[in-house]
Each structure stands twice: as C-alpha cells, then as structure tokens.
Amino acid sequence: LGEDFAFEKGSATLNKDGRKAIEKLALRLNDGDHANAVVVVEGHTDDAPVSRPATVEKFGDNWGLSAARAAAVVRALQAAGVKAERLRGAFRGQYAPAVGGGKKDDRAANRRVEIYLAK
After folding, report:
1. Which of 21, 81, 102, 111 has the maximum number of C-beta atoms within 10 A of its C-beta?
2. How far apart are CA 28 and CA 33, in angstroms?
C-alpha cells in the first residue's frame, strides 16, 4: 500500500480507499490456502525527515510514522475479520528503501506498507 493510495502525507490514518483495499484483502486472507497464514505488516517511509510540527509531536520521526502506519493496517485487518493471533506488525522507517536515488518519484515509492504471508 503506497502512502499516496492509503494515507495522507504525514498521517497514519487510513483513507477511504485504503480501508476498502484492506477489507478486500482480509477476505482473501481468510480464504483457502491463506486462512491460517501469519500476516506480517511492515511500515516504511522515505528518507525525508518528519518536519511538520504536528507530525513531529505525534510520531517523533520516521521510525514512529512507519510504526503507526503498520499498526493502522494491522488494526484495519483485525477489524475486517483477520484474527489478531495471525497478525504481526513491523516497521523499518527509512532504512529499507524500495528504490534508491532520492528523486521525488523514488521517495514516493519508498513511502509504503508491505504485507507478507509467513508460516
């Protein structure tokens, strides 16, 4: 889930499109081969420091923002019917970029939440 798709800039609140996507995903996670898999939700940010005063106050830094976004997705999955015992949250901040380079498009690709299935 990319930031531009699921979250407002500097926010850890899922928007309407993000919530709808999570609800659809939960249906698939509770069906067939995926029904017993552990679901790992990993939050990421770009390398731009958290700078708006309200965002700094709420999250502190990119670690906090990535953790809050992962937690928001975990909570949404649970609310959509995925058992809490199957859910794991993780956060990487800016330290596991999907794309290097520092260009605007690169930074956008690095602001994301990744969801993995584990045994």
Report:
1. 111
2. 9
